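INFO batch 0412 | record 1 of 1 | parsing
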Amino acid sequence: MGSIKELKSIVYHKILEELDRKIEVISEAIASAKDSRNNDTKSSAGDKYETGREMMQIEIEKNEVLLSQTAKQRKELARIDILEKYDKVAFGSLVTTDKGTYFISIGIGKIQIADQTCYAISLASPIGGLLKDKVVGDEVQFQGRTFTIKEIA
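INFO prediction complete | emitting tokens
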């Protein structure tokens, strides 16, 4: 892997791609459920028909909530300027510690880039809160371990 700036760009774009893919899958699921609901022909068993339609409606509503949450995450991620240089840990920074690499953005967890593991975390997460406003050389204690900040991009 190249520089920390290159890693930051790769991680950022991988998260964007993942969110876009997720939005597409959820949108397709909603369209499919709506199509099934709308094309469900009424049978002589009226209760079965209504139950099926209601189940489809519940599925649609569940997916619409998921779509809204995912779109909100994507919008939040889009606020990051990946070219911005950070002197301290803040939203949008990539932080390398002696225990791991963290992209301070949205909390979606582990991102694997070739042989490099990076964690996309939010400032609201326990480790994100500890890292906030820290600078290179600072140490934080988390779950009985000491993390030393080596680099921030």
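INFO post-check: The chain has two domains: 4-78, 94-152.
INFO record closed
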